[in-house]
Design brief:
Layout: E1 2-5, E2 12-15, H1 28-38, E3 40-43, H2 50-58, E4 78-81, H3 95-101, E5 117-126, E6 134-138, H4 139-145, H5 148-155, E7 158-161, H6 163-168, H7 172-175, E8 186-189, E9 191-193, E10 200-202, E11 208-211, H8 216-230, E12 237-239, E13 246-250, E14 254-258, E15 268-275, H9 282-285
Parallel strand pairs: 2-3
Antiparallel strand pairs: 1-2, 3-13, 4-15, 5-13, 5-15, 6-12, 6-14, 7-8, 7-11, 9-10
The structure holds fe (ii) ion.
Length: about 290
């Protein structure tokens, strides 16, 4: 197993590993250590079906139920796709496409759930002829760049997270769907300290709709400033997908977004999320 840097501030390509052969005793400890240290792992040339994808993901922790009430064959798999159940490609102006467009806002996954995510394992399935990159930044690096004054303020802050908030920024009709209101607001501290490395990271997302103890508009302006400083152009790793790619990122220490693609073409990425546990520092982000 060899590591090659992806970006000066974070992320590595893991070379020489077929993830289908990884077990809790074989290579997982090294992979987990790289995950804790680098926040983003890229594995190229993988040949993963859903079962192998889930088996690898489960090494990181409990796999999240991502069915959002849909009756799919495998509730833990979430295909990020514009191909609909009936086989057709979703219309550009449809709510289905708009929900994918909402992924183009900087976020970290599942902050609106009662148990937030530790990791996302995202694998290429069908790629468009252009566009559709996934971009990531390190909020650990962003944290290091903050002034001591701002760090002290952020350490005391609690953010309110709501799925409908990020959808509201795209379309009021999308935000009004019952699926966007399945969970109560969730409160998380604005800083997630990694219990393995001791590093702090900003914990913020497009789903963050306010700062507790601040007026709504003031809190939202503060959140927007934090996200803007974390996502400066020089902070961004832009992943141009190739067939066989698997990205694994640390939801506690990154933000990500998708880029647009020609929506008449299919883009399908297979995703599973791993729920955070207390050993991942969850208890400390709970206010
Ligand atoms: Fe996401």
């Amino acid at each position: 197993m060899k590591l090659r840097p992806l970006h000066p501030r974070f992320g590595v390509e893991v070379q020489g590993v077929d993830v289908r052969t990884v077990t809790a005793d074989r290579l997982y400890p090294e992979i987990r250590a790289a995950f804790e240290e680098h926040s983003l792992l890229l594995f190229r040339g993988q040949d993963l079906d859903d079962a192998a994808h889930l088996r690898f993901g489960a090494l990181f922790g409990p796999v999240e139920d991502r069915s959002m009430g849909r009756n799919g064959p495998e509730p833990r798999m979430d295909n990020v796709t514009n191909r609909q159940g009936d086989g057709t490609i979703a219309a550009t102006d449809s709510l289905h496409t708009l929900n994918l467009v909402a992924n183009q806002l900087w976020h970290t996954d599942s902050t609106f759930l009662p148990v937030p995510a530790l990791a996302n394992l995202l694998a290429a399935r069908v790629l468009p002829s252009s566009g559709g990159e996934t971009q990531l930044v390190s909020t650990r690096a962003a944290w290091r760049d903050l002034s001591e004054d701002l760090k002290a303020r952020a350490r005391k802050m609690v953010l309110r997270h709501r799925l409908a908030h990020s959808r509201q920024g795209i379309s009021a009709e999308l935000a009004a769907l019952p699926a966007m209101h399945r969970w109560d607001d969730q409160l998380w501290r604005a800083v997630w300290r990694n219990p393995v490395t001791g590093d702090e990271a900003l914990y913020v997302a497009s789903h963050a709709c306010g700062v507790e103890s601040m007026a709504v508009s003031e809190g939202q302006a503060f959140i927007a400033d934090l996200i803007a400083s974390a996502t400066r152009p020089e902070m961004i790793y832009s992943h141009a997908w190739q067939g066989g790619d698997l990205l694994v990122w640390d939801e506690r220490a990154t933000l990500h977004r998708g880029l647009p693609w020609p929506y008449a073409e299919e883009r399908t990425l297979a995703s599973i999320c791993i729920s955070a546990q207390d050993i991942d520092g969850l208890a400390q982000v709970s206010p």
